[in-house]
Amino acid sequence: MTEQTTENAYLGGRVxxxxxxxxxxxxxxxxxxxxxxxxxxxxxxxxxxxxxGTAALCLAARVPGIQLHGVEIQPAYASLARENATLNDAxxxxxxxxxxxxxxxxxxxxxxxxxxxxxxxxxxxxNAATDAGREQAMGEDTPLKTWLEVAVKRxxxxxxxxxxxxxxxxxxxxxxMPTAMGSLQVQPFVPRPGRDANLVLVRARHSxxxxxxxHAPIQLHSGQTHEKDAxxxxxxxxxxxxxxxSLGFPA
Length: 251
Description:
By secondary structure, this protein is an alpha/beta fold. The protein has helices at residues 29-35, 54-62, 75-87, 104-107, 132-138, 144-154, 170-175, 235-241; strands at residues 5-10, 15-20, 44-48, 67-72, 92-96, 111-116, 121-122, 139-140, 155-166, 181-190, 199-206, 213-214, 218-219.
C-alpha cells in the first residue's frame, strides 16, 4: 500500500484502523452497523464491501471468538483490511473480489450473519466523487438489489442479514429484499430532535415469520443544534462509539 494512510482509534481505542488519508474514510456508520449485529462467540459472519474492515473489526472487538470474513473489490482497501486484522489480532479473512463473483471458498459456505454498508448514492441522480477510492465506496455501481441477493445466498437458514443505508433508500431495501427473508426490522436514526431520519438499519432473518417491526427512532446528537466545537452524541450513541456496547437492536 503506497498511498499515505492514517491510523485512527475506534471504540475508545480498542480498535485501531489504518485508512487512506484521502478518499473514503470510515465514520460512525460502520460502527453502528457492527453494534446492531447480535452475534455470539463461535458464530461466523461475512461482510460484503468491507473497505478497510472497520465494521468487521468493531464486531470482533465486541464479540470475542467470532469468525469473520470480508469481501472488498478495491485492492488497496483489501490490503489495508488485512493489515488491520493483524493490527487488531482478529480472526478476519479478507478476500479481494467483486461481490458478484465471489471466490469458491465463500460460495461453498453460509454464515450466521451477513452484513453490509453498501455505497449510498445512486449515480444516476448524483455526481461522482473526484477520488477514485471514495467514488467506488460511495457511488452505487452494483445495484442494491444485487447486494441483497448475494447476502441472502450466503446466509444460513435462521441467520441474519443486516444493512445500514441512507433513509431515502429504505423503499429500495424493502422492495428488493428476497422472499426467503422475513422478520424484518427497521431502525431509523435521527440526527437531532424533530428531524427526519437520515439513516436506517434493516435486519431480516432467513425463513423468519414475524411481522415487520418499525422501531422508534434513535437520536444521534443532543440538542437542537451543534453549539460548540466538541462531540455532542447522546449517551446511548456514545456508549456504542466509545465503549463498544451493543446497540440493543432486538433479536
